Amino acid sequence: MPSEFAAIIEVGARDGLQNEKQFVPTEAKIRFIQLLKEAGFKEMELTSFVSAKWVPQMQDAKEIVKAFSDDKRNIVLTPNEKGMMAARELNCEAMAVFVGVSNTFNQKNINKTTTESVEQLRPLILKQKQDDLFIRACISTSFYCPYEGKIDEKDTIALCEQFVEAGVDELSVADTIGMANPREVYSLFTKLKDAFPHILLTAHFHDTRGMALANIYAALEAEVYRFDSSAGGLGGCPFAKGATGNVATEDVIFMLHQMGVETGINLDKVVEAVTFIEPYISRKIESKYFNLKAFTKI
Protein backbone atom coordinates (compact mmCIF):
# COMPACT_ATOMS: atom_id res chain seq x y z
CA MET A 1 0.00 0.00 0.00
CA PRO A 2 2.58 2.59 -1.13
CA SER A 3 0.27 5.57 -1.70
CA GLU A 4 -0.20 8.15 1.04
CA PHE A 5 -3.27 9.67 -0.63
CA ALA A 6 -6.69 8.33 -1.64
CA ALA A 7 -9.35 10.18 -3.63
CA ILE A 8 -12.91 10.09 -2.30
CA ILE A 9 -15.76 10.61 -4.77
CA GLU A 10 -18.80 11.74 -2.78
CA VAL A 11 -22.02 10.19 -4.13
CA GLY A 12 -24.47 11.09 -1.37
CA ALA A 13 -26.36 13.75 -3.28
CA ARG A 14 -27.15 11.36 -6.16
CA ASP A 15 -26.76 7.71 -5.19
CA GLY A 16 -27.52 8.50 -1.57
CA LEU A 17 -30.75 10.41 -2.09
CA GLN A 18 -32.21 8.90 -5.26
CA ASN A 19 -34.23 6.21 -3.47
CA GLU A 20 -35.57 8.39 -0.67
CA LYS A 21 -39.36 8.05 -0.71
CA GLN A 22 -40.01 11.54 0.60
CA PHE A 23 -38.89 14.35 -1.68
CA VAL A 24 -35.92 16.26 -0.31
CA PRO A 25 -36.46 19.96 -1.10
CA THR A 26 -34.20 21.31 -3.80
CA GLU A 27 -32.82 24.02 -1.55
CA ALA A 28 -31.89 21.37 1.04
CA LYS A 29 -30.04 19.33 -1.59
CA ILE A 30 -28.16 22.42 -2.70
CA ARG A 31 -27.14 23.26 0.86
CA PHE A 32 -26.10 19.64 1.47
CA ILE A 33 -23.86 19.76 -1.60
CA GLN A 34 -22.44 23.14 -0.60
CA LEU A 35 -21.48 21.80 2.83
CA LEU A 36 -19.82 18.76 1.25
CA LYS A 37 -17.87 20.99 -1.13
CA GLU A 38 -16.75 23.05 1.85
CA ALA A 39 -15.43 19.81 3.33
CA GLY A 40 -13.01 19.60 0.42
CA PHE A 41 -14.50 17.19 -2.12
CA LYS A 42 -13.15 17.75 -5.62
CA GLU A 43 -15.27 15.06 -7.30
CA MET A 44 -18.96 14.53 -6.58
CA GLU A 45 -21.99 12.89 -8.11
CA LEU A 46 -24.59 15.65 -7.97
CA THR A 47 -27.76 14.32 -9.55
CA SER A 48 -29.23 12.15 -12.29
CA PHE A 49 -30.99 12.98 -15.56
CA VAL A 50 -33.57 10.23 -15.40
CA SER A 51 -37.33 10.10 -15.81
CA ALA A 52 -39.09 11.89 -12.94
CA LYS A 53 -41.80 9.26 -13.28
CA TRP A 54 -39.41 6.48 -12.26
CA VAL A 55 -37.09 8.45 -9.95
CA PRO A 56 -39.13 11.37 -8.52
CA GLN A 57 -36.27 12.41 -6.24
CA MET A 58 -34.23 13.52 -9.26
CA GLN A 59 -36.91 15.74 -10.82
CA ASP A 60 -34.91 18.85 -9.89
CA ALA A 61 -31.73 17.78 -11.71
CA LYS A 62 -31.58 20.94 -13.81
CA GLU A 63 -31.87 23.21 -10.78
CA ILE A 64 -29.12 21.29 -8.97
CA VAL A 65 -26.74 21.49 -11.92
CA LYS A 66 -27.41 25.19 -12.47
CA ALA A 67 -26.56 25.88 -8.82
CA PHE A 68 -23.07 24.45 -9.34
CA SER A 69 -22.38 25.33 -12.95
CA ASP A 70 -18.96 26.79 -12.12
CA ASP A 71 -17.50 23.40 -11.14
CA LYS A 72 -16.79 21.26 -14.21
CA ARG A 73 -15.86 18.08 -12.32
CA ASN A 74 -19.39 17.60 -11.00
CA ILE A 75 -20.60 14.20 -12.23
CA VAL A 76 -24.19 13.65 -13.37
CA LEU A 77 -25.74 10.28 -14.13
CA THR A 78 -26.94 10.06 -17.74
CA PRO A 79 -28.31 6.57 -18.38
CA ASN A 80 -29.43 7.16 -21.96
CA GLU A 81 -29.34 9.57 -24.88
CA LYS A 82 -32.10 11.77 -23.50
CA GLY A 83 -30.20 12.16 -20.24
CA MET A 84 -26.98 13.01 -22.07
CA MET A 85 -28.73 15.62 -24.20
CA ALA A 86 -30.19 17.24 -21.08
CA ALA A 87 -26.77 17.31 -19.45
CA ARG A 88 -25.14 18.76 -22.57
CA GLU A 89 -27.72 21.55 -22.70
CA LEU A 90 -26.51 22.59 -19.24
CA ASN A 91 -22.84 22.34 -20.26
CA CYS A 92 -22.07 19.38 -18.00
CA GLU A 93 -18.59 18.08 -18.68
CA ALA A 94 -18.58 14.88 -16.61
CA MET A 95 -21.17 12.15 -17.08
CA ALA A 96 -21.75 8.68 -15.67
CA VAL A 97 -23.39 5.70 -17.33
CA PHE A 98 -24.23 2.39 -15.68
CA VAL A 99 -24.67 -1.25 -16.61
CA GLY A 100 -24.98 -4.35 -14.47
CA VAL A 101 -22.81 -7.38 -15.19
CA SER A 102 -25.87 -9.50 -14.37
CA ASN A 103 -28.46 -9.78 -17.15
CA THR A 104 -31.29 -10.36 -14.68
CA PHE A 105 -30.36 -7.29 -12.62
CA ASN A 106 -30.17 -5.20 -15.78
CA GLN A 107 -33.55 -6.37 -17.04
CA LYS A 108 -35.27 -5.64 -13.75
CA ASN A 109 -33.53 -2.28 -13.50
CA ILE A 110 -33.74 -0.86 -17.04
CA ASN A 111 -35.56 -3.58 -19.00
CA LYS A 112 -32.50 -4.40 -21.14
CA THR A 113 -29.91 -7.17 -21.15
CA THR A 114 -26.30 -6.31 -20.43
CA THR A 115 -25.44 -6.68 -24.11
CA GLU A 116 -28.34 -4.46 -25.21
CA SER A 117 -27.32 -1.81 -22.70
CA VAL A 118 -23.72 -1.70 -23.88
CA GLU A 119 -24.75 -1.58 -27.53
CA GLN A 120 -27.02 1.37 -26.76
CA LEU A 121 -24.38 3.24 -24.76
CA ARG A 122 -21.30 2.66 -26.93
CA PRO A 123 -22.15 5.18 -29.71
CA LEU A 124 -23.31 7.71 -27.10
CA ILE A 125 -20.01 7.44 -25.24
CA LEU A 126 -18.01 7.75 -28.45
CA LYS A 127 -19.97 10.88 -29.34
CA GLN A 128 -19.31 12.54 -25.97
CA LYS A 129 -15.62 11.64 -26.09
CA GLN A 130 -15.32 13.41 -29.44
CA ASP A 131 -16.08 16.57 -27.47
CA ASP A 132 -13.57 15.57 -24.79
CA LEU A 133 -16.11 15.07 -22.01
CA PHE A 134 -15.28 12.97 -18.95
CA ILE A 135 -17.16 9.65 -18.86
CA ARG A 136 -17.33 7.28 -15.90
CA ALA A 137 -18.83 3.82 -16.33
CA CYS A 138 -20.52 2.43 -13.23
CA ILE A 139 -20.31 -1.36 -13.27
CA SER A 140 -23.10 -2.75 -11.06
CA THR A 141 -23.25 -6.27 -9.59
CA SER A 142 -19.53 -6.74 -10.16
CA PHE A 143 -19.26 -9.36 -7.43
CA TYR A 144 -22.75 -10.66 -6.64
CA CYS A 145 -26.27 -10.28 -8.01
CA PRO A 146 -29.43 -10.54 -5.87
CA TYR A 147 -30.96 -12.79 -8.55
CA GLU A 148 -28.06 -14.70 -10.09
CA GLY A 149 -25.73 -15.04 -7.11
CA LYS A 150 -21.96 -14.90 -7.49
CA ILE A 151 -20.67 -13.18 -10.63
CA ASP A 152 -17.72 -14.68 -12.47
CA GLU A 153 -14.69 -12.36 -12.44
CA LYS A 154 -14.24 -12.95 -16.16
CA ASP A 155 -17.70 -11.51 -16.87
CA THR A 156 -16.96 -8.35 -14.89
CA ILE A 157 -13.60 -7.88 -16.59
CA ALA A 158 -15.15 -8.48 -20.02
CA LEU A 159 -17.80 -5.79 -19.42
CA CYS A 160 -15.15 -3.36 -18.20
CA GLU A 161 -13.13 -4.06 -21.32
CA GLN A 162 -16.06 -3.11 -23.53
CA PHE A 163 -16.34 0.26 -21.81
CA VAL A 164 -12.59 0.85 -21.96
CA GLU A 165 -12.71 0.15 -25.70
CA ALA A 166 -15.56 2.65 -26.00
CA GLY A 167 -13.27 5.28 -24.50
CA VAL A 168 -14.47 5.84 -20.92
CA ASP A 169 -12.13 7.64 -18.53
CA GLU A 170 -13.12 5.81 -15.36
CA LEU A 171 -14.53 2.50 -14.18
CA SER A 172 -16.48 2.56 -10.92
CA VAL A 173 -16.72 -1.12 -9.96
CA ALA A 174 -19.51 -1.79 -7.49
CA ASP A 175 -20.38 -4.37 -4.87
CA THR A 176 -24.02 -3.42 -5.32
CA ILE A 177 -25.54 -5.64 -2.62
CA GLY A 178 -22.63 -5.55 -0.17
CA MET A 179 -21.81 -9.24 -0.37
CA ALA A 180 -18.18 -9.24 -1.50
CA ASN A 181 -15.38 -10.20 0.87
CA PRO A 182 -11.80 -8.81 0.99
CA ARG A 183 -10.27 -11.82 -0.76
CA GLU A 184 -12.67 -11.42 -3.70
CA VAL A 185 -12.07 -7.67 -3.79
CA TYR A 186 -8.29 -8.07 -3.87
CA SER A 187 -8.52 -10.69 -6.59
CA LEU A 188 -10.80 -8.72 -8.93
CA PHE A 189 -9.11 -5.36 -8.53
CA THR A 190 -5.66 -6.86 -9.00
CA LYS A 191 -6.82 -8.31 -12.32
CA LEU A 192 -8.50 -5.04 -13.33
CA LYS A 193 -5.34 -3.07 -12.53
CA ASP A 194 -3.31 -5.44 -14.68
CA ALA A 195 -5.82 -5.37 -17.53
CA PHE A 196 -6.40 -1.59 -17.60
CA PRO A 197 -3.30 0.13 -16.19
CA HIS A 198 -4.12 3.51 -17.75
CA ILE A 199 -7.78 3.79 -16.68
CA LEU A 200 -9.06 5.47 -13.52
CA LEU A 201 -10.25 2.63 -11.32
CA THR A 202 -12.68 3.33 -8.49
CA ALA A 203 -14.10 0.95 -5.89
CA HIS A 204 -17.76 1.33 -4.87
CA PHE A 205 -18.86 -0.63 -1.80
CA HIS A 206 -22.14 -1.03 0.02
CA ASP A 207 -22.09 -1.96 3.69
CA THR A 208 -25.05 -4.35 3.83
CA ARG A 209 -23.06 -7.01 5.70
CA GLY A 210 -20.57 -4.73 7.44
CA MET A 211 -17.74 -5.60 5.04
CA ALA A 212 -17.21 -2.29 3.26
CA LEU A 213 -14.25 -0.95 5.26
CA ALA A 214 -12.48 -4.31 5.11
CA ASN A 215 -13.08 -4.34 1.36
CA ILE A 216 -11.65 -0.85 1.03
CA TYR A 217 -8.51 -2.03 2.79
CA ALA A 218 -8.30 -4.97 0.38
CA ALA A 219 -8.67 -2.58 -2.57
CA LEU A 220 -5.85 -0.44 -1.17
CA GLU A 221 -3.70 -3.55 -1.00
CA ALA A 222 -4.48 -4.05 -4.70
CA GLU A 223 -3.22 -0.47 -5.26
CA VAL A 224 -6.63 1.09 -5.87
CA TYR A 225 -6.75 4.59 -4.45
CA ARG A 226 -10.15 5.91 -5.53
CA PHE A 227 -13.34 5.20 -3.61
CA ASP A 228 -17.00 6.16 -3.94
CA SER A 229 -18.70 6.84 -0.64
CA SER A 230 -21.86 8.50 0.62
CA ALA A 231 -22.06 10.98 3.51
CA GLY A 232 -24.02 9.37 6.33
CA GLY A 233 -24.03 6.04 4.48
CA LEU A 234 -27.08 7.23 2.55
CA GLY A 235 -28.43 5.15 -0.28
CA GLY A 236 -29.42 1.61 -1.08
CA CYS A 237 -30.59 -0.47 -4.01
CA PRO A 238 -34.32 -0.84 -4.75
CA PHE A 239 -33.63 -3.99 -6.77
CA ALA A 240 -31.68 -5.74 -4.00
CA LYS A 241 -33.84 -6.76 -1.06
CA GLY A 242 -32.32 -5.69 2.24
CA ALA A 243 -29.40 -3.84 0.66
CA THR A 244 -28.34 -0.91 2.80
CA GLY A 245 -26.60 2.25 1.76
CA ASN A 246 -23.16 3.00 0.43
CA VAL A 247 -20.26 2.91 2.82
CA ALA A 248 -20.35 6.07 4.93
CA THR A 249 -17.92 8.76 3.82
CA GLU A 250 -17.01 9.75 7.36
CA ASP A 251 -16.21 6.14 8.33
CA VAL A 252 -13.97 5.76 5.29
CA ILE A 253 -12.14 9.02 5.91
CA PHE A 254 -11.64 8.27 9.60
CA MET A 255 -10.12 4.86 8.80
CA LEU A 256 -7.87 6.23 6.07
CA HIS A 257 -6.63 9.15 8.17
CA GLN A 258 -5.92 6.81 11.10
CA MET A 259 -3.84 4.71 8.70
CA GLY A 260 -1.87 7.74 7.54
CA VAL A 261 -3.63 7.91 4.15
CA GLU A 262 -4.66 11.49 3.43
CA THR A 263 -7.81 12.46 1.54
CA GLY A 264 -7.85 16.26 1.64
CA ILE A 265 -11.28 16.10 3.30
CA ASN A 266 -12.24 17.83 6.55
CA LEU A 267 -14.00 15.19 8.64
CA ASP A 268 -15.80 17.68 10.89
CA LYS A 269 -17.27 19.37 7.81
CA VAL A 270 -18.60 16.03 6.56
CA VAL A 271 -20.32 15.49 9.92
CA GLU A 272 -21.80 18.98 9.58
CA ALA A 273 -23.24 18.05 6.19
CA VAL A 274 -24.72 14.79 7.52
CA THR A 275 -26.19 16.65 10.50
CA PHE A 276 -27.87 19.05 8.11
CA ILE A 277 -29.40 16.41 5.83
CA GLU A 278 -30.47 14.01 8.61
CA PRO A 279 -33.93 15.58 9.22
CA TYR A 280 -34.80 15.10 5.55
CA ILE A 281 -33.95 11.40 5.51
CA SER A 282 -36.52 8.69 6.19
CA ARG A 283 -34.17 6.19 7.79
CA LYS A 284 -31.69 6.34 10.63
CA ILE A 285 -28.12 7.40 9.91
CA GLU A 286 -26.07 4.29 10.61
CA SER A 287 -22.57 5.72 10.19
CA LYS A 288 -20.37 4.62 13.10
CA TYR A 289 -18.33 7.82 13.18
CA PHE A 290 -21.37 10.09 12.94
CA ASN A 291 -23.19 8.36 15.78
CA LEU A 292 -20.11 8.30 17.99
CA LYS A 293 -19.53 11.98 17.28
CA ALA A 294 -23.07 12.75 18.41
CA PHE A 295 -22.44 11.33 21.89
CA THR A 296 -18.70 11.58 22.48
CA LYS A 297 -15.74 13.80 21.80
CA ILE A 298 -13.53 11.97 19.32
TrEMBL record:
<dbReference type="InterPro" id="IPR000891">
    <property type="entry name" value="PYR_CT"/>
</dbReference>
<dbReference type="Pfam" id="PF00682">
    <property type="entry name" value="HMGL-like"/>
</dbReference>
<protein>
    <submittedName>
        <fullName>Hydroxymethylglutaryl-CoA lyase</fullName>
    </submittedName>
</protein>
<feature type="domain" description="Pyruvate carboxyltransferase">
    <location>
        <begin position="6"/>
        <end position="271"/>
    </location>
</feature>
<comment type="similarity">
    <text>Belongs to the HMG-CoA lyase family.</text>
</comment>
<dbReference type="InterPro" id="IPR013785">
    <property type="entry name" value="Aldolase_TIM"/>
</dbReference>
<dbReference type="GO" id="GO:0016829">
    <property type="term" value="F:lyase activity"/>
</dbReference>
<keyword id="KW-0456">Lyase</keyword>
<dbReference type="InterPro" id="IPR043594">
    <property type="entry name" value="HMGL"/>
</dbReference>
<keyword id="KW-0479">Metal-binding</keyword>
